[in-house]
Design goal:
Layout (H helix, E strand, L loop, with lengths): L4 E4 L2 E4 L1 E6 L2 H15 L1 H20 L5 H18 L2 H12 L8 E6 L3 E5 L3 E5 L5 E4 L3 E5 L5 E5 L5 H14 L3 E3 L2
Parallel strand pairs: 7-10
Antiparallel strand pairs: 1-2, 3-4, 4-5, 5-6, 7-8, 8-9
């Protein structure tokens, strides 16, 4: 059969099937969200240090060449830490890799307690083994661990299926986060 029915939270739940192709937009958005999520604390600390250097620069009575050079590097640091430069560089690197995930096609079948992932092989992943799930408007990012994440494109899903998946992730995954 193309779908099965599960009993979930007092209502029936059918399998939810969807396919995601890792295209340019999906990968760029993921790299951006991943960067800003993983660098949150580091970015705060760096911004404080940058602010201290800037205050120091403008409160000096005599500005030397080294102060100007330091100030220029600080401004570049502000740009790097607080903009999407690094995710864009990582995207370009990803395109150049021989075994790039670009245009990878993944098929997901979401069930009551786990989901099936089909690429070159079949793999079953229990929801409770996911490290975290980040939901954005158009995707879910399912983190298997610190170095592996899966992207589920929500644009192919019906609204009711998105609601069911969101509830499953909130219920069964230890860390769930929605980012606007």
């Amino acid at each position: 059969p193309s779908f099965m029915i599960y009993y979930f939270w007092g209502v029936t739940m059918k399998e939810i099937k969807t396919t995601t192709i890792y295209n340019e937009n999906i990968l760029k958005k993921f790299l951006e969200v991943h960067y800003f999520e993983s660098m949150k604390t580091v970015r705060i600390i760096l911004n404080i240090l940058i602010l201290v250097v800037i205050i120091n620069f403008f409160t000096k009575d005599q500005v030397k060449t080294i102060d100007i050079i330091t100030f220029i590097f600080v401004v570049l640091g502000i740009l790097e830490v607080n903009t999407g430069i690094i995710p864009k560089v990582n995207y370009k690197r990803l395109l150049k890799k021989k075994d790039s995930v670009f245009n990878t096609k993944l098929t997901y079948t979401f069930k009551k307690n786990n989901f099936e992932l089909i690429n070159d092989k079949k793999e079953y992943i229990d929801y409770n083994t996911l490290k975290k799930v980040i939901e954005v408007e158009e995707s879910y990012y399912l983190y298997i661990n610190n170095t592996r994440a899966l992207i589920v494109d929500k644009t192919n899903l019906e609204t009711k299926d998105i609601e069911v998946l969101t509830n499953i992730f909130k219920e069964k995954v230890s860390t769930y986060k929605y980012i606007k």
